[in-house]
């Protein structure tokens, strides 16, 4: 959209209704108005609906991300780190796969900075299950950063690190449908880790997220199951977007036939409230076999491959790297490192 003069809500919304793309600066202006509390719920809702109806572009999402990060409490974590996250919204109500996978990745010795919030479309979000496990969420940004080094894993609670997002809540709640804001969580980690493993329910969303990460020079595996699951699982083939060296390549992997996992039904991954999901976390980290363990190991492998620093995860085909990642993740569970890390993290969060 190349209209003359300063942006206004009517100018942007009229352009979107005419199916004109925004420039990144125009998207930044819109997000800046939201972050400053200077947009009404009606203006924001109209903007988000028009943007979704047209179809978001990489440049538009990139502009939203950059402005959101400009208003966030940012943290610096020394060295390389990774995030393992699912966007949610797949309506399958699974246990907290990405949270468990994050603990396994950290147990394997790769520093994890996880970013998330409370449940929006499920019974238990990352914040909910971590709180049920005994982790304190009321950490200052400075303490959150310290824990990454002390423990090897930390959690950026979205409402603490992105306080200005409260201005968008009424419009998002009133709309009740996915919008561009659903893309922003995995892209606005306050530490901006070098690598990410991100599960999404929609292919269009996956392509956008992968494109933004590539434009920002990150490395990642973005993936979705053909059944719409925002995790990697042996419920069927999965589509993966591999982000590296500024580009994106698409791959299809069948976890059962190519990685040796036992075929499962998504119902075998279904979870409950935060307390019951926390119990599942402890059982899996204690070595309990079954479909949840295999799924956690697979998603941990995705995080390890995105990071690429462990032997075997930085060379070979994607399938070969994932196989190595599964083996590394299994050792981190079976020798107790992942469970021990969780306990150290809980204790450290109390100080």
UniProtKB/TrEMBL annotation:
Binds 2 magnesium ions per monomer. InterPro entries: Anthranilate_Pribosyl_Tfrase, Glycosyl_Trfase_fam3, Glycosyl_Trfase_fam3_N_dom, Glycosyl_Trfase_fam3_N_dom_sf, Nuc_phospho_transferase. 5-phospho-alpha-D-ribose 1-diphosphate binds at residues 86, 89-90, 94, 96-99, 114-122, 126. The gene is trpD. In the C-terminal section; belongs to the anthranilate phosphoribosyltransferase family. Catalyzes the transfer of the phosphoribosyl group of 5-phosphorylribose-1-pyrophosphate (PRPP) to anthranilate to yield N-(5'-phosphoribosyl)-anthranilate (PRA). GO terms for biological process: L-tryptophan biosynthetic process. Pathway: Amino-acid biosynthesis; L-tryptophan biosynthesis; L-tryptophan from chorismate: step 2/5. Homodimer. Pfam families: Glycos_trans_3N (PF02885), Glycos_transf_3 (PF00591). Its EC number is 2.4.2.18. Its cofactor is Mg(2+). Anthranilate 2 binds at residue 172. Residues 80-338 form the Glycosyl transferase family domain. Anthranilate 1 binds at residue 86. It is an enzyme of class 2 (transferase). HAMAP family: TrpD. Mg(2+) 1 binds at residues 98, 231. GO terms for cellular component: cytosol. Gene3D superfamilies: Nucleoside phosphorylase/phosphoribosyltransferase catalytic domain, Transferase, Pyrimidine Nucleoside Phosphorylase, Chain C. Mg(2+) 2 binds at residues 230-231. GO terms for molecular function: anthranilate phosphoribosyltransferase activity; magnesium ion binding. This is Anthranilate phosphoribosyltransferase. It catalyses: N-(5-phospho-beta-D-ribosyl)anthranilate + diphosphate = 5-phospho-alpha-D-ribose 1-diphosphate + anthranilate. It comes from the Bacteria. SUPFAM superfamilies: Nucleoside phosphorylase/phosphoribosyltransferase catalytic domain, Nucleoside phosphorylase/phosphoribosyltransferase N-terminal domain.
């Amino acid at each position: 959209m190349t209209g003359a003069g300063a942006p206004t809500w009517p100018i942007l919304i009229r352009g979107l209704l005419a199916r004109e793309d925004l420039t990144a600066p125009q998207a930044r202006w819109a997000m800046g108005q939201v972050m400053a509390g200077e947009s009404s719920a009606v203006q924001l809702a109209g903007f988000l609906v028009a943007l979704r109806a047209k179809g978001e572009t990489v440049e538009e999402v990139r502009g939203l991300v950059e402005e959101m990060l400009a208003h966030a409490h940012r943290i610096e974590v020394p060295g390389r780190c990774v995030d393992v996250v699912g966007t949610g919204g797949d309506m399958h109500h699974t246990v907290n796969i990405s949270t468990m996978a994050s603990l396994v990745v950290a147990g394997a010795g790769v520093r994890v900075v996880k970013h998330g919030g409370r449940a929006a479309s499920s019974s238990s979000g990352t914040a909910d299950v971590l709180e049920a496990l005994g982790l304190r969420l009321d950490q200052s940004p400075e303490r959150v950063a310290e824990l990454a080094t002390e423990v090897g894993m930390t959690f950026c609670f979205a409402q603490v690190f992105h306080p200005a997002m409260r201005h968008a809540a009424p419009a998002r709640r009133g709309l009740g449908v996915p919008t561009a804001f659903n893309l922003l969580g995995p892209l606005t980690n306050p530490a901006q880790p070098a690598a990410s493993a991100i599960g999404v329910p929609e292919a269009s969303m996956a392509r956008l997220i992968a494109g933004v990460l590539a434009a920002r020079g990150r490395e990642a595996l973005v993936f979705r199951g053909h059944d719409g699951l925002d995790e990697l699982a042996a419920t069927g083939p999965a589509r993966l977007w591999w982000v590296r060296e500024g580009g994106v390549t698409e791959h299809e992997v069948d976890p059962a036939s190519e990685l040796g996992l036992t075929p499962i039904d998504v119902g075998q991954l279904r979870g409950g409230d935060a307390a019951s999901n926390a119990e599942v976390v402890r059982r899996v980290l204690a070595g309990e076999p079954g479909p949840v363990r295999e799924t956690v190991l697979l998603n941990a492998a995705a995080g390890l491959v995105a990071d690429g620093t462990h032997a075997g995860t930085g060379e070979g085909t994607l399938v070969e790297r994932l196989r190595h990642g599964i083996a590394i993740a299994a050792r981190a569970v079976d020798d107790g490192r992942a469970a021990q890390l969780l306990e150290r993290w809980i204790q450290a969060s109390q100080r």
